[in-house]
UniProtKB/TrEMBL annotation, chains A, B:
<dbReference type="GO" id="GO:0008295">
    <property type="term" value="P:spermidine biosynthetic process"/>
</dbReference>
<feature type="active site" description="Proton acceptor">
    <location>
        <position position="161"/>
    </location>
</feature>
<feature type="binding site">
    <location>
        <position position="168"/>
    </location>
    <ligand>
        <name>S-methyl-5'-thioadenosine</name>
    </ligand>
</feature>
<feature type="binding site">
    <location>
        <position position="111"/>
    </location>
    <ligand>
        <name>S-methyl-5'-thioadenosine</name>
    </ligand>
</feature>
<feature type="binding site">
    <location>
        <position position="36"/>
    </location>
    <ligand>
        <name>S-methyl-5'-thioadenosine</name>
    </ligand>
</feature>
<feature type="domain" description="PABS">
    <location>
        <begin position="7"/>
        <end position="241"/>
    </location>
</feature>
<feature type="binding site">
    <location>
        <begin position="143"/>
        <end position="144"/>
    </location>
    <ligand>
        <name>S-methyl-5'-thioadenosine</name>
    </ligand>
</feature>
<feature type="binding site">
    <location>
        <position position="91"/>
    </location>
    <ligand>
        <name>spermidine</name>
    </ligand>
</feature>
<feature type="binding site">
    <location>
        <begin position="161"/>
        <end position="164"/>
    </location>
    <ligand>
        <name>spermidine</name>
    </ligand>
</feature>
<comment type="subunit">
    <text>Homodimer or homotetramer.</text>
</comment>
<keyword id="KW-0963">Cytoplasm</keyword>
<keyword id="KW-0808">Transferase</keyword>
<dbReference type="InterPro" id="IPR037163">
    <property type="entry name" value="Spermidine_synt_N_sf"/>
</dbReference>
<keyword id="KW-0745">Spermidine biosynthesis</keyword>
<dbReference type="InterPro" id="IPR030374">
    <property type="entry name" value="PABS"/>
</dbReference>
<dbReference type="InterPro" id="IPR035246">
    <property type="entry name" value="Spermidine_synt_N"/>
</dbReference>
<feature type="binding site">
    <location>
        <position position="67"/>
    </location>
    <ligand>
        <name>spermidine</name>
    </ligand>
</feature>
Length: 285, 285
């Protein structure tokens, strides 16, 4: 007979009044880096889980959704992405997805917190696989805002893989940052940012969409299902100088080894439910 | 200065190892009916919440997704739905949505638990609005399985708005029940059932899809975002004798007063992410 054991549950208050709770086997890692509190816990339901400042960033089980969906829509919209920048994204999952595109010559990671990179290599080797020695990858432990300011007309695609807009990531949700990204992109460049939950962060999504609309000729919002993120529904916003994700010929898209993204959903993810679509339409409240 | 107060949180273990937790102001209602435990709680995040046997059934804030999405896909696929049956659905939300279709002559509710109907009328008057005296509505406190067995060639659309497949709802997920529905439908009838989470209930979805594929010539799976349901992603499965939701001319669909459903998403919700699509494809595992 098994002896009764203490149960440990990790609870994230995703809003002041609501959250998720998940059973954990043990804490694998805890540190306070120069930028944030960093924990890795082993959960029963979602495998290893990376938690920054008390917020779930990624897990073994559902990481594929976020990493594929922030990456492949933009990459498959640009006809020939060679130079790609990831701002944030220290876990390496976006880099791994970028490297699935054969056109890529250089993938730069500008992650402000080296602790995230090291912890991910150790506890999430599958997610961080792109960080181990691919010659196309340039890992920079650096402030993404500074990197953007110092690079002009350089990138085909820029992905803003940030934490929530608190702590080190606040500046990554500001209009001036998006204007910097516009300058860092080539004349037909495209950017994408994670922009939180359409259920819980409606004002933020509306503001970012308006800021990107004022900065880029083409702005688009899409969503994906991520169970460990607040509400389970997550949004991404695209700003593009020339190429429209809705103008892509999906029949021509290359097959990719993916678990969420399919060429067949490349356009359909932009057909939003009414309560999400409202966030993108000026005339409606 | 406010005095400190006791905090009450309701936690649902949606799986043995994972769940949601939500702050409540008070319990509005508790009873044990002949069929299940029934609670209504007032939450901070989601307004009033109906809980059956410890599982969230609906809330003021996100109820529109489930009720619109189980209803309008099937209703807008059938060219002229006059007679409609809801099995379960005692909260009345599906009836409310059905009544938005002007073709409807009769909407029958077969709910086994009268306690759900009464509690919903009292605590969810907006959801239950269709249960208050519309002459087209026939409310029967009755076993849906028995109702199906006793009615042949009668309905244009049948919706299975069940609880989880435990307790009173077990029989609503069995192949024999779907065969009964086929007989209760007219020759061009269509059915839809809620079929749980593609993240947590993969075996169930795969089995129901296979059973419906063996029962109807047309079977389709689609999803919607429901934050208070396990994983935040919910699936619905359609079985149809003649009309294919993917063959609808969305330009011809009537405008409806809805917050999630739009004619523009009528077909796109069937383009599934790869890990969900796998559940519908025999050749793949």
């Amino acid at each position: 007979m098994e002896k009764p054991q203490m149960e440990l549950w990790y609870t994230e208050r995703q809003t002041p009044n609501h959250g998720i709770t998940t059973k954990i086997n043990k804490t694998l890692h805890h540190e306070v880096t120069d930028f944030q509190s960093l924990d890795v816990i082993e959960t029963e339901q979602f495998g290893n889980m990376l938690v920054l400042d008390g917020m779930v960033m990624t897990t073994d089980i559902d990481e594929f959704v976020y990493h594929e969906m922030i990456t492949h829509i933009a990459m498959n919209t640009h006809p020939n992405p060679k130079n790609v920048l990831v701002v944030g994204g220290g876990d390496g999952g976006v880099i791994r997805e970028i490297l699935k595109h054969s056109s890529v010559e250089k993938a730069v990671l500008a992650e402000i917190d080296g602790g995230v990179i090291e912890a991910s290599k150790k506890y999430f080797p599958e997610i961080a696989s792109g960080l181990f020695g691919d010659a196309r990858v340039d890992i920079q432990v650096a402030d993404g805002i500074k990197h953007i300011a110092e690079n002009k007309n350089k990138y085909d695609v820029i992905m803003v893989d940030s934490t929530e807009p608190v702590g080190p990531a606040v500046g990554l949700f500001e209009k001036g940052f998006y204007e910097g990204i516009r300058e860092a992109l080539k004349e037909d460049g495209i950017m994408v940012a994670q922009t939180e939950s359409p259920w819980f962060n409606r004002d933020l999504i509306r503001r970012v969409f308006a800021d990107l609309s004022a900065t880029f000729p083409i702005t688009r919002l899409y969503t994906a299902s991520i169970p460990t993120y607040p509400s389970g529904l997550w949004s991404f916003t695209i700003g593009s100088k020339k190429h429209d994700p809705l103008a892509v010929d999906v029949q021509e898209l290359p097959a990719l080894d993916t678990k969420y993204y399919r060429p067949e959903i490349h356009k359909t993810v932009f057909e939003l439910p009414q309560f999400v679509r409202e966030l993108t339409v000026k005339e409606e409240k």
